[in-house]
Amino acid sequence: MNSETILGVNVTPLNHKEITNAINQRIKAELKSTIVAINPEKIIKANKNQELLALLNSATYQIPDGIGVILASKLRKGALQSRVTGIDLMERLLELADTERYRIYLYGAHDSVVSKAVQVIKTKYTNIELVGYMHGYEQNTNKIIRDINNCSPDLLFVALGSPRQEFWIKENMDRLNVKVVQGVGGSFDVLSGKVKRAPKAFRNMGLEWFYRLMTNPSRFRRQLVLPAFLLKVLLKRKENSPIGEPE
């Protein structure tokens, strides 16, 4: 599978359905898969941290989570089709698990959050086999790995925040007896109802970031990453002139 490279970071040029189907095929083929979300903030961090850059590029799938990544691809006449957000892909994989009877495990967030997310998932996906969960404040990694492996999940969702969750996945993947591991950031907060997601109209227009800024103005400094990121992409495109083809 070919990836598009934006400022050195690989991004998977597949939509929700294509990635879900590809993951399902890999599960049935007994292949391990890791999924990380890519957004402008993470790309900028990776450009300053070679260890993070290598980690992101080593994943099986790097989903284009941020609208800025899509805009960057369009500026470069790239192949990215649409956003694939972490929460949306997680829900697609939950639907897949419900249909295929795959076993899932949730790890991360506060105990009250992850336990509520478990209740919501079991209510919404009545055939799902949710075999275990653990909050993200457990310090004993051996205990965490042991509990996950004892539950024998097919899919593991890790919500430790970025880049902590990506490093955790990379460091422990060889010890985990699972087929798929996805870093899902704050998705448990959304599933549990603790955090309200932007209305669908904002999401469809790629303005989820703007909604979060309106409802939480303290995010202003973080949002400044987007114009800085796009400027860097434009400058890189000029360096690669005349046509600015994908790297």
UniProtKB/TrEMBL annotation:
Keywords: Cell wall biogenesis/degradation, Glycosyltransferase, Teichoic acid biosynthesis, Transferase. Catalyzes the conversion of GlcNAc-PP-undecaprenol into ManNAc-GlcNAc-PP-undecaprenol, the first committed lipid intermediate in the de novo synthesis of teichoic acid. This is N-acetylglucosaminyldiphosphoundecaprenol N-acetyl-beta-D-mannosaminyltransferase. It comes from the Bacteria. Its EC number is 2.4.1.187. Pfam families: Glyco_tran_WecG (PF03808). Pathway: Cell wall biogenesis; teichoic acid biosynthesis. The keyword Glycosyltransferase applies. Belongs to the glycosyltransferase 26 family. TagA/TarA subfamily. Signal peptide: none annotated. It catalyses: UDP-N-acetyl-alpha-D-mannosamine + N-acetyl-alpha-D-glucosaminyl-di-trans,octa-cis-undecaprenyl diphosphate = N-acetyl-beta-D-mannosaminyl-(1->4)-N-acetyl-alpha-D-glucosaminyl di-trans,octa-cis-undecaprenyl diphosphate + UDP + H(+).
